[in-house]
C-alpha cells in the first residue's frame, strides 16, 4: 500500500510540474532551454539527476561492486570530480557564452554554426536519433520490469504507465518541467541513496567492519580465483566520466543556465550531489560481498543485474523498499526525459527547422517539438516492447558512439580557434567508426575499453587534419569567441 501512495504522490508532483512549465512555455527556446534562465541549484540537480539512471544503482553497482570490491568507488570519485565538477569548470562558461554568440540551442546547431558546415547539423542529428532513442527505450524497459515486480502488473501495462507519465509532464512543460521535476527527483535520489547505504551497512555489521570484511571477502570470492581487469576499471572510469562531456543531454544543461555567475555554485552543488549518489551506489554494490558468496544466477546464468535488487528485497523492510523504488524511479525518469527531449530536438530543430522549413513560426515550432516528443516516447515504447536485435546493439553502442563522435569537435570548438570544418568532421567520423569497429572486435564485455579509445582517438584526428587544411574564416571565429 505504501509504495502505491508514494508513487501516486510522485506522479501528481510530475504532472503539476508539467502544468506549471506549460504556462511558462511559449517559444521553442522556452521549451528546449527554459529561456536560458535556470538557476544554479536547479541546474546542478538537473545535471546530476540526468547523469545517473537506474543502471547505476542496479547494473553497474552490482556488476562492478562485485567484480572490483571497494575499488569500484574509484568510478564514483571519477564521475563526481571529473564527470560533474570538472565538466562545469571546463565547459560551463565557454559553452554558455559561445552558444549565445552563435544563437544555437542544440549540439548539432553548435557544430554547424561553429564550423560552417551546411550538412554537419543533419549528420549530427541523425547520430543522436539513432543512438539516444534506443538508449531511452532501454530505460523504459527497466522501469517496466521494476513496476511489474513491485506492483504485480503485467510488463505491458507497466510500460504503458511509464510512457503516459513521461508524456504528460514532458510534452506539457518541456525543459521548465524537466528541470523542476529533476530538482524534486534529485532530493528523492539523495534521500533514497543515503537510506539504502546506511541500512545495508548497519545490517552488514557497521561501516568499519564492512570496510574490512568487504576486502577480505572480495579476495576470497573474486581475487583468489582470477586477477580483476584493472584496465577495464580504468576505462569504465574514463568512459563514464569524460564520456558525459560529449553527451548532448548533459551539455544542454550548460546552454540553459541563467548567467556565468551561477557556474561556480552549480559546479560545487553538482559535485556534492554526484559524490553522495555515486558513492552510495557503488558502496552498496560492494556490500554484495557481505551478503553473497557467489554471483546471483538466473536459470543457471550469472546475472549481475539481479545482485543489488536481490539484496534489497531480502534485507530491507517494505517501507524502506518503497523509498528505494522512488529512488530508482526518479533516477530513470530524469535520464529518460533528458534523452527524449534531446532526441526530439534532433528532428524538430536540427532537421525540420534547420533544413526543411526554416521559416516555421514560433507557435508551430513549439507544437512540433511537443508532437515529436510524444512521437519519440511512443517509438521508445515500441522499441522497449518488441526489442529487435539490431536495436539492442544500438543500445550497447550508444555511449561510445555519441561521446566518441561529439566530444572532440565540441571541446576543440570551444578552445581552439584553428579547428577546421574538415578536421571536426574527420574527428566525428573517426570516433564513431572506432567505437563501432572496436565494439565488434573486442566484444560487448570490453565495450568500455572500446568506447574509451573511441573518445580519445578524435582528439588526435581533429588537430592533425585541421593543421593540414585551410584556416576557418576570421569572421566566424570572432563571432564565436566574442567575450571569451
Give a brief outline of the structure.
With 484 residues, this protein is an all-alpha fold. 81% of the residues lie in helices and 1% in strands.
Structural commentary:
The chain is mainly alpha-helical and 484 residues long. The protein has helices at residues 2-24, 28-33, 40-51, 54-68, 73-102, 107-115, 120-151, 155-204, 207-223, 230-242, 248-255, 262-286, 288-291, 307-315, 318-356, 362-386, 389-415, 421-442, 447-467, 474-480; strands at residues 297-298, 301-302. It has one domain (2-387): Up-down Bundle (Sodium/glucose cotransporter), CATH 1.20.1730. It has a two-stranded antiparallel ribbon with strand order 1-2. Helix 3 crosses helix 15, helix 6 (107-115) crosses helix 17 and helix 7 packs across helix 16 (362-386). The longest helix has 50 residues, at 155-204.
Distinctive features:
Sodium/glucose cotransporter; 484 residues; mainly alpha; two-stranded antiparallel sheet; 81% helix; 2 strands
Chart the SSEs and their pairings:
Blueprint: H1 2-24, H2 28-33, H3 40-51, H4 54-68, H5 73-102, H6 107-115, H7 120-151, H8 155-204, H9 207-223, H10 230-242, H11 248-255, H12 262-286, H13 288-291, E1 297-298, E2 301-302, H14 307-315, H15 318-356, H16 362-386, H17 389-415, H18 421-442, H19 447-467, H20 474-480
Antiparallel strand pairs: 1-2
Helix pairs in contact: 1-8, 1-15, 3-8, 3-11, 3-12, 3-15, 4-12, 5-10, 5-12, 6-7, 6-17, 7-8, 7-15, 7-16, 7-17, 8-12, 8-15, 8-16, 10-19, 11-15, 15-16, 17-18, 17-19, 18-19
Amino acid at each position: 500500500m505504501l509504495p502505491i501512495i508514494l508513487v501516486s504522490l510522485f506522479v501528481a508532483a510530475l504532472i503539476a510540474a508539467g502544468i506549471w512549465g506549460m504556462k511558462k512555455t511559449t517559444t521553442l527556446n522556452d521549451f528546449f532551454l527554459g529561456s536560458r534562465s535556470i538557476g544554479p541549484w536547479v541546474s546542478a540537480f538537473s545535471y546530476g539527476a540526468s547523469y545517473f539512471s537506474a543502471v547505476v544503482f542496479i547494473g553497474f553497482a552490482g556488476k562492478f561492486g562485485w567484480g572490483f570490491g571497494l575499488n569500484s568507488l574509484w568510478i564514483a570519485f571519477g564521475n563526481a570530480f571529473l564527470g560533474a565538477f570538472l565538466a562545469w569548470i571546463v565547459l560551463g562558461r565557454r559553452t554558455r557564452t559561445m552558444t549565445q554568440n552563435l544563437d544555437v540551442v542544440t549540439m548539432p546547431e553548435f557544430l554547424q554554426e561553429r564550423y560552417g558546415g551546411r550538412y554537419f547539423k543533419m549528420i549530427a542529428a541523425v547520430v543522436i536519433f539513432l543512438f539516444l532513442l534506443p538508449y531511452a527505450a532501454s530505460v523504459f524497459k527497466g522501469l517496466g520490469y521494476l513496476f511489474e515486480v513491485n506492483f504485480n502488473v503485467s510488463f505491458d501495462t507497466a510500460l504503458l504507465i511509464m510512457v503516459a507519465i513521461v508524456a504528460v509532464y514532458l510534452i506539457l512543460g518541456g525543459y521548465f518541467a524537466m528541470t523542476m521535476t529533476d530538482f524534486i527527483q534529485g532530493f528523492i535520489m539523495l534521500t533514497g541513496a543515503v537510506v539504502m547505504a546506511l541500512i545495508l551497512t548497519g545490517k552488514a555489521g557497521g561501516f568499519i567492519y564492512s570496510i574490512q570484511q568487504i576486502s577480505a571477502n572480495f579476495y576470497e570470492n573474486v581475487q583468489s580465483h582470477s586477477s580483476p581487469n584493472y584496465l577495464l576499471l580504468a576505462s569504465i572510469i574514463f568512459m563514464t566520466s569524460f564520456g558525459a562531456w560529449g553527451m548532448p543531454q548533459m551539455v544542454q544543461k550548460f546552454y540553459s543556465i541563467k548567467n556565468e555567475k551561477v557556474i561556480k555554485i552549480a559546479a560545487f552543488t553538482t559535485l556534492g550531489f554526484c559524490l553522495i549518489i555515486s558513492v552510495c551506489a557503488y558502496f552498496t554494490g560492494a556490500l554484495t560481498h557481505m551478503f553473497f558468496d557467489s554471483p546471483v544466477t538466473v536459470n543457471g546464468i550469472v546475472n549481475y543485474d539481479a545482485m543489488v535488487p536481490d539484496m534489497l528485497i531480502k534485507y530491507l523492510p517494505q517501507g524502506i523498499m518503497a523509498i528505494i523504488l522512488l529512488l530508482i524511479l526518479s533516477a530513470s525518469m530524469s535520464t529518460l526525459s533528458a534523452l527524449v527531449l534531446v532526441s526530439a530536438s534532433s528532428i524538430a530543430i536540427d532537421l525540420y527547422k534547420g533544413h526543411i522549413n526554416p521559416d516555421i513560426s514560433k507557435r508551430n515550432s513549439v507544437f512540433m517539438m511537443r508532437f515529436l516528443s510524444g512521437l519519440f516516447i511512443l517509438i521508445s515504447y515500441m522499441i522497449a516492447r518488441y526489442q529487435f536485435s539490431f536495436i539492442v546493439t544500438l543500445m550497447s553502442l550508444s555511449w561510445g558512439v555519441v561521446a566518441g563522435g561529439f566530444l572532440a569537435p565540441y571541446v576543440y570548438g570551444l578552445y581552439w580557434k584553428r579547428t577546421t570544418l574538415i578536421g571536426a568532421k574527420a574527428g566525428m567520423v573517426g570516433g564513431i567508426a572506432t567505437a563501432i569497429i572496436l565494439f565488434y572486435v573486442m566484444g560487448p564485455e570490453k565495450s568500455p575499453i572500446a568506447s574509451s579509445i573511441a573518445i580519445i582517438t578524435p582528439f588526435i584526428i581533429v588537430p592533425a587534419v585541421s593543421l593540414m587544411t585551410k584556416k576557418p574564416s576570421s569572421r566566424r571565429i570572432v563571432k564565436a569567441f566574442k567575450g571569451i
